Amino acid sequence: MKKLNVNRVLDLHQSDSSESLAIARLANCNIGRFGFDRRTPLFIKNKANQKSVIRYGFGNNGSIKKLHRHAIALNYDSMNELDVKPDQDVDLIVTKATLTQQIDWLLHHSDLNVRLSMRFALLELD
Asked: What's the whole-model pTM score?
């Protein structure tokens, strides 16, 4: 399984910062053939306090100048959940989210519509 060690968190551009988008931007060398696929749910874990989030991975569209191989750009809410601050040294691990992690994230999502949709979908499996 692909695993990325991240040592720097940067602010995500304002156009990507909506909570409903749930985006994490990585350096383009970490996306594609040698890294994670675009739009893959990524499990981002802070090794210092064991807090985690799931965000969809995208490459850098050119809006983030300091984004390098061991950096990630997150929105304010993601940084708050992970208890990290922008432009400071961090110790994060990024992996592809498993199916159970994705289901758990959707069941406890902050948006009520997402939570209800996921619960109805699970009820339909019977």
From this structure: 0.88
